UniProtKB/TrEMBL annotation:
UniProt protein name: FAR1 domain-containing protein
Highest rank taxon of the organism: Eukaryota
Chain residue ranges for the region called Disordered: 1-31
Source species taxonomy: Eukaryota, Fungi, Dikarya, Basidiomycota, Agaricomycotina
Organism: Mycena belliarum
Biased composition annotated in UniProt, kind: Low complexity: 13-28
Amino acid sequence: MTSFQGRFRLDCPRSSAPSPSDSSIVPSTAPNSPAFAYIEFRAHPDPTPPKPTRGCFEHDSASSKFGLRWERWTDFQAWLITEQETHCIELRLVNTYPSTPAFQRACRYVCSRKGTGGIKPYTKLHPEWNRKRGTKRTGCKCTLLVKEYPGVDTILGSYADQHNHPLGNANLPFTRIPKRSREYIAGENDTVLPSSQHIMPNAEESRCHETIPRVKTRTRGAGDPSYGGNANSGSEAKQPKLLFFFVCFRSLINLISGRQSQILVRRLRHHHQQTSFLSPLSYPHNCSLSLSLTQHPSHILFPHIIFRPLWYR
């Protein structure tokens, strides 16, 4: 860097300067005269440029902390999906920093094994019991910081991929199924999932590009023969059971409230029409009440009441 040194003279003010008509006063040219003063200065033709603002694109590009670079934000999202699929991990967004003159957007992701929420105020009743699956929170130090800058399309990222837990299939029980995969399973999304959006993140390449056949499922109940029920009783299994309990409760209330005679005669006649092993004259006055269900289609609306004499107990 070249430099030069110079000197210039400061003369006295004009008010005190001698007039040219006065020839008797001659200014002194001595260096030590108080009428003159010399100032020494040094100038540089290319001064040192100022340092960039901390946190801006130039500062982060020169720093060794931000080692990842993407051309667009969509490229970063594709890289994030691939990174989670390759190592069977889950990176969750925990903080979004507000924009400043240095950067436009900054997002911080952490590993799900670290935990993104607070500690719940729950005390285990039996902490000495051994669980089949260990705790999810291991305090993992893996973190990802991504920054977007104004006027620049390039995205910079700082990634610390040190995990304190096993990766791969051993970490799958502690991760969630992606939202797009859940929608595909539920039938809300009929599009074919790409390899990075499949249900099993570490599946084979051949299975990733295959279309999963959709099978219509139905609720297995009492009418399903494979479930151990009768195929003809499917409609009966769908009948609401709440109505049956309501009718039974109403029948008991009517018996207690003084309408025993009318209810008994009505139910006895109805039951005699449905069964043939009892006669209308074989019911004594001192009998006990018990409710039972039959396979009759109207058992929901008309619960059958069977009376047995007390001496049969």
